[in-house]
Design brief:
Layout (H helix, E strand, L loop, with lengths): L2 H17 L8 H24 L28 H17 L1 H6 L7 H22 E5 L8 E4 L20 E4 L5 E6 L22
Antiparallel strand pairs: 1-4, 2-3
């Protein structure tokens, strides 16, 4: 209990007691006025004291943090580049029997037989290359002619053989015109999780 409330209660009790004494009845109005003022003062002090109290707001419960595991990324296609290369070899095998030709032991065959097989391989594989690459020669000059290799040439487009001295441009005889491609269209695979077969095993049912 606050001290001023105790003191106010004692004063009010004293004032009320004075009202009971006959000799102080002539001061009834003054005593009543003092009691009224005292009561108002207590009321004001109680209000001010209550407003000074620190109001501790009710703390809101911490937000519920739901830990959502990150979405599992879809595994990237495995061996995509390797599978596309194998698929391209499958085209060379299908059109030109290239793998059959390269994997065959040619020691037991005559040159004429090898030449006949090479013609089939050449025609079929050339068709595949033309469909999936845009191949053209690096140098348009005739092989055996003199050409000039310009300064700033691409190292993968020219191979300089023989005696090399000084700085480019270089002049020499064209031994091989070279090849390059501007377009590559390898077969696109939907499922590259495993390497596809180059050629299926053929089984004749009986």
């Amino acid at each position: 209990m606050k001290l001023y409330i105790t003191l106010a209660g004692i004063l009010l009790a004293v004032l009320n007691g004075l009202l009971l004494i006959p000799s102080t009845r002539t001061y009834t109005f003054q005593i009543a006025a003092i009691g009224f003022v005292l009561a108002v003062a207590v009321l004001v002090l109680s209000y001010v004291d209550g407003s000074k109290k620190t109001v501790v707001p009710e703390l809101a419960p911490p937000p519920q943090v739901s830990i959502v595991p990150p979405p599992t990324p879809e595994p990237p296609p495995e061996n995509t580049a390797q599978a596309e290369i194998v698929a391209f070899f499958a085209l060379l095998q299908e059109k030109g029997r290239l793998v059959d030709f390269l994997m065959e032991d040619l020691a037991s065959y005559e040159d004429a037989e090898i030449g006949a097989a090479a013609r089939v391989v050449h025609e079929g594989c050339k068709q595949v290359l033309q469909e999936h690459f845009k191949i053209h020669p690096i140098s348009l000059a005739e092989e055996g002619s003199q050409i000039t290799v310009p300064a700033g040439f691409a190292a993968d487009e020219y191979r300089l053989v023989g005696k090399l001295s000084g700085d480019p441009p270089f002049t020499g005889k064209l031994v091989h015109k070279g090849w390059k491609t501007d377009i590559v269209k390898l077969p696109r695979l939907v499922d590259a999780r495993r390497l596809p077969a180059i050629a299926p095993a053929e089984v004749e049912l009986v």
